[in-house]
Structure prediction request, 449 residues.
Amino acid sequence: MSEQPGASPVIEIDHLTKYYGTREIVSDLSLSVERGTIYGFLGRNGMGKTTTIRIFLGLEDPTRGSARVFGLDSRKLPPEARARIGYLPEGHHVYGWMTVKECGQFQASFFPSWNQDIFETVLTHFRLTSKMKAGHLSRGQRAGLCLALTLAPEPELLVLDDPALGLDPVARRSLLQSMLYVTRRADRTIFFSSHLLSDVERVADRIAVLDGKVLRADCSVETFRRQIRHFVLKFRDSPPPTPDIPGLLESFRSDREMALTLVNVTPEIENRLDALQPQSIEPVDLTLEDAFISYVGERGEKTFFMNGKESK
Amino acid sequence: MSLVFSLSPASDIPIYRQIIQHIRRNVIQGQLQLGEQLPAVRVLAESLVVNPNTVARAYGELIRDGLLESRSGVGVFVAEEMRQVFSNAERKRRLDHAVEQLLHEALLLDFPLPDVRATLEEQWKTLQAQLTNRRKK
Prediction:
C-alpha cells in the first residue's frame, strides 16, 4: 500500500469553503487522499464532515474552492466516474416495501460491474436472507443491507459516512472486516467518517481531524498519538501557576500535582517543564480517544495543526 | 502461534506494540519455535482485524531488534540465533527498566528480597530448560 510517487490522489480537496446562507459550514479545507489508503475522517458532530463528503461526491456545490475525484471536477462528475464510487450515506435508507433480494436487483440494474457473490457474502455476514422485507429490518441489519448494496458493484472508491452508527459490536466487527477485505486490492481506497476511535485505530492508515470547520490534523494514527503527550508533574508543595507553554491543550492541578496535555512537544518545551522544578515528571501514555478528546476539547488554544509528512 | 489473540484498542498501548509484545511472549514461552515461520502480514492482519501496515510495522521492529528475520520471497521467521543488536548500555537500560517494574510489584505485594530472588532463580531455571530443549530438537 505504498504511495506511488506521481500517481494522482483519488480525492483532492482544495481550499474548500461552504456556506449555508450566512453560516459557514466548512472553512478553507484542503486535503488529499492517496490511492490504496483507508482514510478516517474524524470530528465532532456538526463540524462539516457530511457536507465535505457531499461536496466531493458532487451532491452539493462548494461556495469557494474545489474538489476533485479521480482527477475530475466534482461539480461535473460523469456517470462513468460515479459508477466507480460506492457511497454509503448516513442513516442507511432503504426502500421499505422491497425485499432484500429486490433491493439487490434494483441496485444491480444501475451497475454493470455488479458482483452478486459479494452481495450475498455480506448479507450472510449480517444474517440476512433474500425474502426479508427491507422495511422490517433492525437497524444493524439495515446497515448490513446498505453495505452489501454499496460493496457489490466493487467500487474503486468507497465513501462511508458514519457507517458504524447504531451497529452492535458484532456488526461493527463485520464492517471492519469488510473494509479490510475491500482493500486487499491495492487500488481500492476507503474514505470513512466515524466517532469510534478504537475502530479507527484498527483499520485507518491516516486520519483527518475536522474541528470548528477547520482541518486540524492530517497524519497517521501513530503520529497523532505520538504528538499528543501527557505529563504528570509532582511538587513538594502546591504547584506553581500553570505555565504559558505553546501547545498546551489541557491542564489539571491538584494539591501537589500538575497534569499537562501538550501537542508538538519540543526539547525547549521539555526544558521549560524542568524549569518548574518539580520533584518528578512522569510521561503518561494516552489512548487515541483520550488524545482526540484533549485535542478537540473545549479548553486550550486551537491553533495547532498536525501534519504528517512522516516517513515510515 | 495462535493467530487470534485479544487486542485492546482502547488501551494506552498502541496496537503495533501489543502485537510485538504478543510475539515476544510467544517466542520466550515456546509457542513459537526458533526458526518457525510467522503468518503472512495480510493473514495476521485479517485475523486480528487490523490494518496490514500495523502488522508490517510490528514485524519490522522485531526484525530490527533481531528476534525475527526476513527471508526474501519466503516470509518472516523467528531468528535461529538471537542476535544482540543493542549496545551494552542499551541492554543494561532495558534490564534496569524491567527489574524496576518487578521490584515495584514485589514491594507492593510485600515480599522480602530473598523471596523475590528465589522466585527469580526458579523461573530462570524453568525457562533455560525450555530453551535448551528447543535447541536440541
